[in-house]
Amino acid sequence: EVQLVESGGGLVQAGGSLRLSCAASGFAFDDYAIAWFRQASGKEREGVSCISRSDGSTYYADSVKGRFTISSDNAKNTVYLQMNSLKPEDTAVYYCAADLYYCSYYPNQGGMDYWGKGTLVTVSS
Questions:
Q1: Using 50, 70 and 90 to split pLDDT, how confident is the model at 124?
Q2: 94: left (phi > 0), else alpha (psi -120 to 50), else beta?
Q3: Residue 53: what pLDDT?
Q4: What pLDDT is recorded for position 55?
Q5: 82 near 69, Cβ under 8 Å?
Q6: Which helix or strand (DSSP H or E) is residue 16 part of?
Q7: Beta bridge partners of 25
Q8: By C-alpha distance, which of 1, 3, 2, 111 is closest to 47?
Q9: Are the C-beta atoms of 62 and 9 separated by less than 8 Å?
Q10: What is the spatial distance between Cα 28 and Cα 33, in angstroms, rounded to a whole number?
């Protein structure tokens, strides 16, 4: 069974940090790029970051550049999103998604092969 399971969300004060994890199973993880998306209440889902582990490329939304870092632990089949200097506007449900080989569709959500169910991040002011 294909699974992407996000964890690490929670409540944090503005300026704080969280590390999200996306644990994958049931498919050839090494062949897939992993992207993070987020959806705030009443807003459309948006791309946050993507890592193409085939060539090491990483991508970030302008709104998170310099604050968020995406990384991968291939031994654990897990991708992380380290989020620092969090702002109230970062409050959202964060999802990870898998895209075959490269971050081809990112930041668009269409075309992703697999999705997790999300983890809620709440940043208080």
A1: very high
A2: beta
A3: 79
A4: 85
A5: yes
A6: none
A7: 3
A8: 111
A9: no
A10: 11
In this prediction, residue 54 carries a pLDDT of 81
What's the CA angle centered on 27, arms 95 and 99, to 5 degrees? 50
With H, G, I as helix, E, B as strand and everything else as coil, classify residue 117: coil
Structure tokens at 120: 């809620």
65-102 in b/e form (b: 16+ CB < 10 A) is: eeebbbebeeeebbbbbebeebeeebbbbbbbbbbbee
pLDDT in tens, 106-118: 999 888 999 999 9
What is the per-residue pLDDT across 7-66, written as a single tens digit (0 to 9) for each?
999 999 999 999 999 999 999 998 999 999 999 999 999 999 999 978 889 999 999 999
Q: Could you tell me which of 9, 17, 18, 58 has the C-alpha nearest to residue 34?
A: 58
Residues 6+ apart with CB under 8 A from 110: none
